[in-house]
Amino acid sequence: MPSFDVVSEVDKHELTNAVDQANRELSTRFDFKGTKASFELEGYDVTQVAESAFQLKQMLDILRGRLSARNIDVRCMDVADPLENLGGARQKVTIKQGIEQATAKKLVAAIKASKMKVESQINGDKLRITGKKRDDLQAVMALLRKTDVDLPLQFENFRD
Fold this sequence. Notes:
Nucleotide-binding protein. By secondary structure, this protein is an alpha+beta fold.
């Protein structure tokens, strides 16, 4: 039976490249000359360090631009509130990996509501869709692209 997996993943290599490019852009921008502004990447967490909250907002725009240039969907970003003190300001941006349980249930409910002849099951942070016809699976892909989910969805492991 044909099947495919629905995942939400970010390529670690592309993320590293995007953060490096954002740091390079910071070093060349006139409004950041002489400041201690930088992006730091640990795992899938990007920490922005600047002297003020205003600069953090500008840095977030730079990061979004660099992520989209590297084909990383910015909907996967979870931006925390900025922390300000006398020494400067910090902000943590988490790059979400995988489909959360609540979001997966929402996707399964949307598939069931469409009354298509497919089965869907949640496997950890993935969603497996199985059907008898390839056309049904492609219709489910189109349906999932239209759903209003705050995550970028990728379809992989398509088996016939």
